[in-house]
């Protein structure tokens, strides 16, 4: 059993024992005991080795990577989008007697990663004035209800979703996800 990055974990009696997991479990053990001593370190190592040897985790490829600088960009732009959307919805809510423009828009996502698609759905649903009515993740298609936009609603919405998706993939995507959007 190998780790996703291709490195093999050392074997103990024929089973892989990932050093990072053992180290992390040992630190947790020490924190639980609250005292740094040779006996606690050795006990933590033995307990960690027993846990990872008796309860091995399956090898998996990470579906989410956090890129701090791009995450900050995503959060800043998303916060700005939240404010703009809130003002737009408030504007239409305060215009009594006027029905705000509404439209149903189908959008195709460019990424095939379900994790990135779910993050896009969550972000779109959090924005006031947009609601994901249907998400066909297998096809990469979303059906959105858009409130309060005028003009070319279809084109504007598709462009906004593409930009949001690109920021999400830049902030959280793996190398394969980012390559897919190029």
Automatic annotation (TrEMBL):
<feature type="transmembrane region" description="Helical">
    <location>
        <begin position="38"/>
        <end position="59"/>
    </location>
</feature>
<protein>
    <submittedName>
        <fullName>Multicomponent Na+:H+ antiporter subunit E</fullName>
    </submittedName>
</protein>
<keyword id="KW-0472">Membrane</keyword>
<dbReference type="GO" id="GO:0008324">
    <property type="term" value="F:monoatomic cation transmembrane transporter activity"/>
</dbReference>
<dbReference type="GO" id="GO:0005886">
    <property type="term" value="C:plasma membrane"/>
</dbReference>
<feature type="transmembrane region" description="Helical">
    <location>
        <begin position="71"/>
        <end position="95"/>
    </location>
</feature>
<keyword id="KW-1003">Cell membrane</keyword>
<dbReference type="Pfam" id="PF01899">
    <property type="entry name" value="MNHE"/>
</dbReference>
<keyword id="KW-1133">Transmembrane helix</keyword>
<dbReference type="InterPro" id="IPR002758">
    <property type="entry name" value="Cation_antiport_E"/>
</dbReference>
<comment type="similarity">
    <text>Belongs to the CPA3 antiporters (TC 2.A.63) subunit E family.</text>
</comment>
<keyword id="KW-0812">Transmembrane</keyword>
């Amino acid at each position: 059993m190998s780790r996703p990055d291709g490195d093999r974990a050392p074997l103990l009696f024929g089973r892989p024992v990932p050093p990072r997991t053992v180290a992390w479990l040992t630190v947790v053990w020490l924190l639980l005991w609250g005292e740094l001593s040779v006996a606690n370190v050795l006990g933590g190592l033995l307990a960690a080795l027993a846990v990872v040897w008796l309860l091995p985790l399956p090898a998996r490829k990470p579906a989410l990577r956090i890129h701090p600088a791009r995450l900050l960009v995503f959060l800043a732009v998303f916060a700005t989008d939240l404010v703009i959307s809130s003002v737009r919805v408030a504007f239409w809510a305060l215009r009594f007697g006027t029905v705000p423009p509404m439209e149903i828009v189908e959008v195709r996502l460019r990424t095939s990663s379900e994790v990135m698609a779910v993050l896009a759905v969550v972000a779109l649903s959090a924005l006031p004035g947009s609601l994901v009515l249907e998400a066909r993740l297998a096809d990469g298609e979303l059906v959105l209800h858009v409130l309060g936009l005028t003009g070319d609603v279809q084109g504007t919405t598709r462009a906004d979703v593409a930009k949001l998706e690109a920021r999400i993939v830049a902030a959280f995507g793996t190398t394969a996800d980012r390559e897919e959007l190029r």
